[in-house]
């Protein structure tokens, strides 16, 4: 799936949420379940049956619900795996064949070096990748909804970093959100990133975990662990000279 570089994060979130509500509603009717969506991880959910995008009234309510659009949402009520009428949360996300195709693309990209070819592969998956972006080997871009990932121009993402737009919380509940990395950023190797807004010129130190601890990193910030304290070795006590003998 190729995407327009001019799509905004709000537009991407609105499109993804509408699509998932439509899919979840179809599955909920088939399984006889009530599925809800909320704007916060622990907030009161709204029955998605009232937000049906295929009915005039539901579309009007959905438009109002998504105005303004949030940076993350939570689906609940899909049921635990052993419940007979449970809904697999992966089915709410994408059709089966697109899930497989995106997963294969992610696997291929995992081993590619940071080249324009790799960026084209990410764009085909749906991710929004700017100009002159370098994404090193072993970087994992979430295959859940790649179109929720935005990386600005002239940004470097170090090896073994992880960009995850969703989190499954068990018992048929999952949340998802936008990852937006601004231009001219340096993401150190092994950085863990969830839904977040990273502004221009940010640098993360290797091994830093940003989410769920931070929702926004201001422009020009350097994020990472404090330098480890260094304890100097104990100094050896100065040897004492034997007491001088008194003169007779």
Overview of the molecule:
With 248 residues, the protein is α/β, with parallel strands linked by helices. It folds into 2 domains: 9-93, no CATH class; 96-223, UDP N-Acetylglucosamine Acyltransferase, domain 1 (3 Solenoid). Helix content is 26%, strand content 19%. The protein contains 5 helices and 18 strands. The protein has helices spanning 9-31, 56-65, 89-93, 96-111, 116-125; strands at residues 36-38, 46-47, 72-76, 128-129, 134-135, 140-141, 149-151, 156-157, 162-163, 166-168, 174-177, 179-181, 186-187, 192-193, 196-198, 203-204, 216-217, 222-223. Strands 2-1-3-11-10 form a 5-stranded antiparallel sheet, covered by helices on one side. A 5-stranded parallel sheet has the order 4-7-12-15-17, covered by helices on one side. α4 (96-111) runs antiparallel to α5. It is globular and about 80 Å long. It starts with 8 loop residues before the first helix and ends in a 25-residue tail after the last strand. 34% of the residues are buried.
CATH superfamily heading of the largest domain = Hexapeptide repeat proteins
Largest sheet: spatial strand order: 2-1-3-11-10
- The end-to-end span amounts to 103 Å
Overall tally of structural domains: 2
Number of beta strands? 18
Major sheet details: 5 strands, antiparallel
CATH architectural grouping of the largest domain: 3 Solenoid
- Can you tell me the CATH class of the largest domain? Mainly Beta
Q: How large a portion of the residues is in β-strands, by DSSP E?
A: 15-25%
